[in-house]
Amino acid sequence: MEQAVMDPARIITAVGNAAAAGKIKAILAEHGYPVIDNASDGNECLRKIISLRPDLAIIDHGLAPRSGYEAALIASEDKLCDVILLLNAGQRDNLNSSTTGGGGRSSITSIGAGSGAGGKISGISAGAVEDIVMAIKPITKDAFIRTVELVLRNRRKILKLEKEIEELKTTIVTRKEVEKAKGLLIANLKISEDEAFRLIQKQSMDRGMPMAEVAAAINKAYGLKRKTATAGA
Amino acid sequence: MPGYTKEEIIKMVKEQDIKFIRLQFTDIFGMLKNVAITSDQIEKALSNKCMFDGSSIEGFVRIEESDMYLRPDPDTFVIFPWRPQAGKVARLICDVYNPDGTPFEGDPRYVLRRAIKKANDIGYSAFNVGPECEFFLFLTDSDGKPTVMTHDNAGYFDLGPVDLGENARREICLALEEMGFEIEASHHEVAPGQHEIDFKYEDALKAADNIMTFKLVVKTIAQRNGLHATFMPKPVFGINGSGMHTNVSLFKDGRNAFYDEGGDLQLSQEAYYFIGGIMKNMKSIAAITNPIVNSYKRLVPGYEAPVYIAWSARNRSPLIRIPASRGLSTRLEIRCPDPSCNPYLAIAAILTAGLDGIEGKIVPPPSTDKNIFHMTGAERISEGIDALPGSLEEAICEMKKSDIARKVLGSHVYEKFVEAKEEEWDNYRTKISKWEIDHYLTKF
Prior knowledge:
heterodimer; A: about 230 residues; B: about 450 residues; alpha+beta; ten-stranded mixed sheet; 13 helices; 18 strands; about 20% strand
């Protein structure tokens, strides 16, 4: 929670009933989560998600004319933001029976308080999209806030992991190019491995270019030289 | 898009885990129809054994003769790029056949095939068509009904850094590229909320297929963005409407038949005859290229849409413009069609009208390089400049006066088309419009 205050997540709600929307906003504000906007129908919800790029959208299933579920599906399919779908037990059962029929392979995580579930994760059921977290109404304040925190914490974790993967990918590419360039420099300039590395590094610093690009340029140049040499012969 | 064999398609359906295949065809009025089948039925469909009830399609057949067969065109196999998680969906565009194995006369794709064959018969190897499709992206209201409000003037998203229209258009382009389209240009148009996406020219049949696919993609992606896309020619009074400028060129023995290095403006005699044919027949085929009541609210002076039947290599106001590029890309730009037309019928009509000029050696009048909108009525008459029909009613009358439309469409489509359009006009004519209420209710 402290982290939430330090790094406030951007949340939008999509709840048709203005009183309910106000209540959710108040609960979230109490716990340090600002709600930046509310949408009152499914299309408006999508437009606001696209335009405001929140971290999390809390969407009520009972939106018209496009159901909250539909909007939630699109938001999660297009990776627009994380979604918590608010729905009652009947709506959940309807969704489950219609989506399992279509051979749903992934799962919807549903979290509920109320009837016996007592704020625990009440079960993982088959559905259409695994990234939508469902909160079953009625839900206690506590369970609701915990769900929000869980989703946001997971989001931060996933974003961090994605960033790390991206960095690792770049590292691998850099290493591959640099190794190849080093080999070419050693063979052609008759220098040591350290000298070859230093040469690439220096070029990179002098030109303000990433090492991978310098190395790629070296590789391309030698590749061209070889091609012209064979063409000439 | 590469051509596929039957076996390749069956393999792809299996490997890519495709759940549904949509067998698509177009009705006479340009509406895309489809029969959805599950992946288990793909073999049956590719053996041309899929049937549907033709009497449920407007303008097709009576109930007694309702069984029709769909013959998928394997070249048109494409997987839709959206909703991958809910099970992939692919489509095949189909030709419609009668139970006795003959092509169905009322299938617009057949109408276009017939027109192309005619061109082939007199020695032209290809008719290339490059459309420039315009459309509006509007916001929807809280009931989900489309409004004529655009992101540009709605103003209530001042907080957001993202232009919803631009964002949707970018996604549309990406989806189209994934489906094999080569996008040549994509930009915001003159009017608020108006967009244009141009894709690479193709031979006539493929181009018409592409236009149908394009409309589907635009509508689908817009919806996923909480917006409503419309191809209505003139949705808002006072701002530019949406056209579908159509660039056309004819090929003979691998050469562009419109190009002649030594010709006047480097255009061949055939190009001039083609222009002559279009100019002679345009009024008679306007009901095909501009088929709805609203089409004629776009064809008025003052909004870059053509009104007069003239051609020019310089100015942009007349019906036919010759873009500057020559050589293989020599082409004519026909500027009146709008995106509410049935592209199969419209392209067939333009081709037939042009060929009529070539066959009849119709010499067009000299080009009009002045801005026609600045000429007086008397000047226009002295220069012999005729106007396009002013309403759907006029267009239908013109259509009935000449036999070219019947020649293009064939009797079946022609009869159904005229009947439906007369009904549409009558329906419109007898309604009381908002304009009348605004002007007369208090006055009289």
